[in-house]
Amino acid sequence: MEHIPTTWYLLLAAILFSIGAGGVLIRRNTLVIFMCVEMMMNAANLTFVAFAREFGSTTGQVFVFMVMTVAAVEVAIGLAILVELYRHVKSVNIDSFDSLKG
Amino acid sequence: MGIELPSLNFGALLPVIIVILTSVMVLIFDLALSDKRPLGWISFVGLMFAGGAGWIQQSMEGFDPAFQNMAITDGYTHFFNLIFVVGAGLSVLVALGYLGKKGLQGGEYYAMLLLATSGMMIMAAGTDLMIIFLGLELMSISLYVLAAINRYSRASLEAGIKYFLLGAFASAFFLYGIALIYGASGSTNLNGIGEGLKAVPKGYEALPLFGLGLLIIGFSFKIAAVPFHWWTPDVYHGAPTSVTAFMSVGAKAAGFAALIRVLTVSFGFDGSMFADNWHVAVATLAVLTMTLGNLTALAQNDVKRMLAYSSIAHAGYVLVGVVTGTEQGISAALFYLMAYAFMNIGAFAVISVLEQQDAIGTNLEEYAGLAGHHRVLAMLMAIFMLSLMGFPMLGGFWGKVYVFLAAIEAGWIVLAIIAVLNSGIAAYYYLRVIVHMYMSPVSDQSHAINLNSAMQVALGLAAFGTILLGVMPARIMDLAASSGLFG
Amino acid sequence: MIEQYLPILILIVASLIFAAIALLAPWYLGPRNPIETKLDTYESGKLPYGDARRQVPIHYYKVAMLFIVFDIEVVFLYPWAILLRDLRMYGLLIMSVFFALLVLGLVYEWMKGALEWN
Fold first, then answer.
1. What is the pLDDT of residue C40?
2. Domain residues for B112?
3. Which candidate, B232, B237, B231, B233, places its Cα nearest to that of B361?
4. Does chain C have fewer CB atoms within 10 Å around its N or its C terminus?
5. What's the gap in Å between the CA of A1 and the closest CA on chain B?
6. Neighboring chain C residues of A68 at a CB cutoff of 8 Å
7. What CATH number does the domain containing A30 carry?
8. pLDDT at C58 over 60
C-alpha cells in the first residue's frame, strides 16, 4: 500500500512552525503566546516523527517523548509565573508587563 | 530473546550526579528545617564535592563515553565543570548574604540553583543533541523559576515571564533546528551528524544549513547575542541580583559550552560549506553583539542595567574566540569565560550589597562617594570594573589579549580591530562607575552597609580569582588548552 | 493513490447531508409557540443566578499544573512496560530511581501544603 510521502509531513510541520512563530510575535495575550510556542514545539515533534519513519530509526521518536515532557514542565512553570504576575497586574496582556524600562 | 543492556558509566558523570543529589537533599531538608540558611551551606558543600570529584576525574585516565555515547567526560567537560562550580559556588555565597535582606531565604532557591547547575554541566558534557537539549531545558526552566522567585515583587515576576517567553521561543527554534539536522544527517549524535553530513550530496545542503541556522539562533538567545538579546536588560534588571549574577555567568558559559562543541565536532570538518558558513555567521553575530552591547551600555544610569548590556558585549568578545574555530581561539574563549565568572559575579555581589528594595539603590548616583563611605567595597568594585574593562594584570585583560591574538593569528584581522575599538568604548562606562565612587562627594542618602560573613567570603574569593587569573594566567590557559576538543 | 481517500470523502459528504437534515427538519416541521417560560435558560423553571463566567478559585489552576507534570511523566512507563521482561532487574533499578524522584516530588508538594484545599 502506498503511503503519504514524508515531504507532506515536513511541509505541514513547516507551516505549523511558521504559524506558531508568527503568533508569538503578533499576539498580545500571554496565554495565546504559550499556545503558539507549544505549536512550534509540536511542529518540531512532527518533523522528528516523520524523519524517524523515513529512516526506520527510533531516535526521532524517543526525542519526541523527551520534548513532550519538557513542554509540559515548561508550561506548568510558565503558568505558575503568570498566575503570580496576574495578582500584581490584573492582566495577561503582554504589553501591560512594562514596569522594567531603562 | 535477549537484548544487550548498555553500560551507563555513571562514574564519568559523577560531578553532575553529586550536584543533583545535593539538590534532592536540599529539598528534603527544606521540609524539616525552619531556618533556611543551612541549606545554602549544604549547597555550597555539595558544589565543593562536585568540584572535588571533577578534580579527581581530571587526574585519571580518559573516560569512556557515558550513556551510550550521549555524554563524554574530557578536558573540555572538566574545564566547564570548573567554571560552573565556581559560578554556582560564588552565587550561593552571594545568595546567603543577599536573600535574608530580601526575605527570600528558602530551600527552593538553592534547589533550583543546583538543578540549573546540573543542567549546565550536562550541556557541557553532552555529545548528543538530545542530551544537550535536555540539559538546556533543565538549566533554563530552573532559571525561569529563579528569576521569578521573588513573588512579592512585580519586577521579579515580569523578569521571570519575559525570560520564560523568550526562552521557550528560543527552545522551539533550537528544537526545530535539531529536527532538520536529524533529517539531513540521520543522527542526533554529534559525531554521527558530522559523518552524516559528509554524505550529503552537493546541492542538497539547504536543509542542514537551515537547521544549523536555527540552532545558532537558539544558542544566541541563551548567550544573549545581538540581535537575540532584547530580553537581557529587562530580565537582568528585574531578577533578584543574586540570580542575575548566577545566570549572567552560568547560562552564558553553558550556552557557549554546547555551541562550541556542536560547531566544532559536527560542523567543523574541513572543506565543507558548513564550516565556511558558520564562521561568517558567528563573525557577524560577534561584531553586532560587541558594538551594540557597548554602545547601549554607554547610555545607562542604572548599574545593574549597565552590567546587563556589558554582559552582552562580553558575549561578543567570547564569540570572537569562537569564530576562529582554532584550538587557540577556543582555549582563549574558555579562559575568557572563566575570568568573566569571577569578575562579573563579583560586580553583581557589590551591587547586591548596595541594593535596598526593589531596584532601588542600583542607580549610579548611589555609588557617589562610596570610597569615602566604605573603602573596601569601593576598592573591590574598582577591581571588578577594571577587570571587566580589560585593565592589565587582571583576569579580564588576559581574556581579551588571548582572544584578540587568536583572532589575528587565524586571519580575522578586521574582527580583532573592531574588538579592540570596542574595548576602548567600554572603558568609558566602567570608568564612570569608578569616577563616581572616588571623585564625587558622598551622597546624603547613603545608608548603613552591612556585609555578613558569606558575602565577605564571596567578594573575597571573586576578587582573589580575578587577581589570580591576572597575575598567573598561564596555568589556567594551559588547562583550557588541554581541553582535548581537537583530539 | 488518491482513490484510497474516496471513502473519507463519502463519509464527509454523508455527514454534512445528515447534519443539514437534522438541523433543518425541526425548523421546518416543528410548531413554534414562544412563550416567556419556554425562553428561560432552564425549561424546568429553575432561575439562573450569577454570571456564567464565574471566577474559579486559583487552587484549581495549581492542582491542574501539578497534575500536568505527573501525567506526562507516566508516558515513560510505556516503553518500560513493553520491554519489562527483557530489561529484567536492570530496568527495574533504573525505573526505581525514576520513581523515587517522582515520589519525592509528590511528597515535597504534599508536605508544602500544595494539595490542601484551604
1. 77
2. 10-481
3. B237
4. C
5. 24
6. 72, 75
7. 1.10.287.3510
8. yes
